[in-house]
Backbone:
């Protein structure tokens, strides 16, 4: 009988230790979920750090070359250009891309007032390029390239609406950009 009492006590102790480990794992999963939500730019744990230059900031100077060989600068894009920054390895970029493409296709002025910047090598950018090229002027540049630096991009996706040489609105969510884009430029 002593062996069965010891075995029951041992199983009970193991169950208690297992329960403590389970609570620890659940706590860590919650921390990871909050961190992932913050990194993706939404949900619980989101901080308010900007993904690009905040509204009112002056956009830095840049000159880039589009995939079709044309030089691109901010002053060549009209008075209220829309700029989207994407990365081929970014899941939120792929989720928000259809909304960007649809809005860009319906936006007056055509491709000249819309710039899509893909951070990565041309090989990595091929799938995004195929979707963006019909609706936007596209630049493929390395991570932290000159266009990303000019707009202070610190994450992907990043969407920026410019008024003149100043940021009108910037966000990782495209809905705030479309709302601001519906308001005409003051200039």
Residues:
């Amino acid at each position: 009988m002593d062996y069965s009492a010891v075995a029951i006590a041992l199983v009970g102790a193991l169950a208690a230790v297992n329960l403590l480990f389970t609570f620890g794992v659940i706590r860590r999963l919650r921390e990871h979920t909050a961190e992932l939500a913050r990194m993706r730019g939404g949900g619980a744990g989101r901080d308010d750090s900007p993904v690009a230059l905040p509204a009112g900031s002056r956009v830095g100077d840049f000159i880039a070359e589009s995939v079709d060989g044309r030089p691109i600068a901010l002053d060549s894009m009209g008075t209220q250009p829309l700029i989207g920054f994407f990365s081929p390895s970014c899941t939120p970029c792929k989720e928000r891309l259809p909304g960007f493409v649809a809005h860009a296709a319906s936006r007056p002025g055509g491709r000249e007032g819309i710039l899509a910047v893909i951070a990565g090598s041309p090989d990595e950018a091929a799938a995004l390029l195929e979707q963006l090229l019909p609706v936007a002027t596209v630049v493929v540049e390395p991570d932290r390239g000159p266009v990303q630096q000019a707009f202070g991009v610190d994450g992907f996706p990043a969407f920026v609406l410019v008024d003149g040489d100043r940021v009108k609105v910037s966000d990782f969510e495209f809905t705030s950009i479309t709302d601001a884009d519906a308001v005409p430029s003051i200039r």
